[in-house]
Amino acid sequence: MKNIFKFFLIIIPFVSFYSIADVHVIVHPSNDAIIKKLDVKKIFLGKTTNFKNGKLAIPINLSDEIDIRTIFNMKILSRTNSQVARAWSKIEFTNTGTPPSEKTATEVIELIANNPNMIGYIDSQYITTKNVKVVLTIK
Amino acid sequence: MEIKLSTVALAVSLLIPFQGAHAVETKITGFGSIIGTTLLSDEGYWVKHPSGAGLYDEDVGFDIKEESLLGIQGAIKFNNKLSVTAQIISRGQDDYNPDIEQFFVSYNATNNWNLKLGKIRNPIYLFSDSMDVHYSFGWLRTPSTSYSLSASFIEGLSAMYQGDILGISNRTIFSYGRANKDPDPFLTELFTRRNFTSKFGNGEKDPSTGEYYPLIKHKNDIKDAFGISTEFYIDDWTLHLAFMEAGGEHDVKTYSNGSTFDEIYDNRDFYDVAIRYDDGNWMFIAEWNQYVEVYSSSYLTIGKYLDDWQFLLTKGNFDGEVVLANGFKPPNSGQEFSDTLTASVRYDIAPSIALKTELVYFENDGSLIVTDQDGDKKIESTILSVGINFIF
Fold first, then answer.
1. What ipTM score was computed for the predicted complex, to two decimals?
2. Nearest beta carbon to residue B111 from set A41, A56, A96
3. What is d(CA B33, CA B356) in angstroms, rounded to the nearest whole number?
4. What is the 3-state secondary structure (H, E, C) of A57-125?
5. Which one of A7, B200, B241, B325 is at 20 to 30 Å from A66 when CA atoms are compared?
6. Which residues of chain B does A46 touch, with a Cβ-Cβ cutoff of 8 Å?
7. In a domain, A9, yes or no
8. Which DSSP state fits B314?
9. Considering the entire predicted model, what is its pTM?
10. pLDDT (tens digit, 9 = 90+) per residue, B150-159?
11. Is B163 in contact with A54 (Cβ distance < 8 A)?
12. Is B116 near chain A, with CB under 8 Å?
């Protein structure tokens, strides 16, 4: 019994760490579209290709921060990573859209800073630049 | 097999000659399924998909070839607006001979409009344009009661709109063209049982002599096909509406004695309505379609996600009998009134590969192809399938 208690004492801090990781949805500073959680969900599930202001929306996924990507998928898209992959496979092979490209957090920031059409998400530790605008934060 | 795989490799390599040319991007992706099925009880079951694959009776045993397939898609992107895409599928049913199932040039005219020209998938069903990508849905196969129409592609052009209509996200595809193809095995059976294809029958009665000659070639040409398919996305809900009308249908049959026989069919309209809910926890799909004067079918699926698992229960119904608007029933027409109950389980091994199993109970009064063997005037069959679906 004590061992089980110790196990939870060791595990809980790690679980808590992931549960409180903040995910920031970012766009180009000039992007004036109203972007809510549902809009992000639609864009990252391929149900729309535009922001609310009618401009093209190009989503970018994280390639290296798998934990942040999982949190983003679970908390914003309400999907597991496999469910998201499944949704995009339908879109890709029916040629009705293009799955998000996968980039590192640094690349995501750099791309969005230079492209008003792009939208991505990053971990709190990368919020060090003024070249992108945070439109949504999920705790 | 080596020759066939090398044919696929060759076809794919043809899509990459521009590698290295500046500003041209190439992308190779693919999908596949290995599906094994066995008949557990009674006479048999025919999946009745457009390819005609999936005929399982007691002679088949455990079959791992009929529905297995490998698809490879290559895209060449010349710039942000212009690209060429080809999709090749090798089906076990066809001894894995590769077939180009999509081949088109695509042009993004605006943020909202995309134009395609070539051989294009016809999105008449909720899953018709993705029914070969088994990885993309929870079932092992799309419900066969409702996915039997073979007009799954057209050679022509399409215009796709993606944008908001009254604040609701919408994707609408207009298509126009023709489909010159092998005949639909299932509809051939339903229309007139005389039309045995070489795949399922031994021959054809020559209408000019009344003698039986083997049918050696049969092409079905659907001309002036116009379709519109629209989907509305409201949060986790999807509403799908589709309509297709063909301006003419022409069957050309060639017999072993060299004679040919042409048949012109009247036009019939096709409608499909589907509603889907999927919140990542629970999912629900209801789809109904009607091929006017030929059949109507529907199914209802309820599913539950549990981490990497998904459990689905599907009830399907098919009501098929050729009755023309004036009440005339063509002689020798087939009938099929069937109900299916399907239990499916999906396990996502990793984000790009899934393991599935599916149990189908099939009840039929007047089956085509599969006939009553035990004299109880009913087909009551159970089949079990397992499959691995993947994308890359």
1. 0.79
2. A56
3. 10
4. CEEEEECCCHHHHHHHHHHCCCCCHHHHHHHHHHHHHCCCCCCCEEECHHHHHHHHHCCCCEEEEEEHH
5. A7
6. none
7. no
8. E
9. 0.83
10. 667 889 999 9
11. yes
12. yes
